[in-house]
What does this fold into?
Amino acid sequence: MAKAKNTTPVRSANKPEGKVGVQSVGKALAILELFGEDNPAMSISEIAAGTGLNRATAYRFCQTLLSLGYLEELGKGELRPGLKAISLARAALGSRELPELAVPYLRDLQSQTHETVNMALLDGDEVVYVARLLSDHLLALRLFVGSRLSAIGSSLGRAMVAFLPDEEIDAMLARSKLESTTQRSITDPEKLRAELRKIRSRGYAVNDQELVIGVTGVAAPVFGLSGRPLAAINLSISHPVKASEIHDELAPLVLQTARSISDLATRLALDSV
It folds into this structure.
């Protein structure tokens, strides 16, 4: 059965902005923000439902975005982000200094482990992938630069969240939907708090097949000048691996790489990315 599309409005496209021009920009952006992992392509009706616009208004805005190259048409009346939108997203990611400078460190980690290596930033309650070096293993998550995952449910996210101030952790847990994606997922808030304390104590996070059966993540945070987490890196392991190998061999390599990138961020006096 196909996964139901999420058409919950990402923002109110009808919110008054005081100026017609600004309001129009807001409506166009609300349409583009609908697209993502759950909604790679949508119909006009789905876009109207997701933005709160009536169908005629949604159609007009989509036609404008089509003409400008920010949307493109697929078969069966569906639309998806166009090349202009993809280029804009890549330009935004490419302008971020630390991910680009971290790539040599990530390549070294991959050459040592032969696993998929990722780097992500924390954006609200989600992580955004900013670097991804794939391994040769057959099983891999369908993720790419720009993909988003729940911060609280992923190793990358937990590696950062665990080192936030307690009040920020409490607020995130209160907002987050602790959904079960596999039988291993942690959905109890107190168990998750205990897991975050463990991560803070040992310095790294392990996600043992909580997102996808067969995939284990080992992540560590990258800290900025102030000591606040700027980013996180991880290994995504898509084959059977022993706990002793994770904790005795792989985690120390991830930690050392994260510390090297943290040293770089400190030398650059970075507190944001």
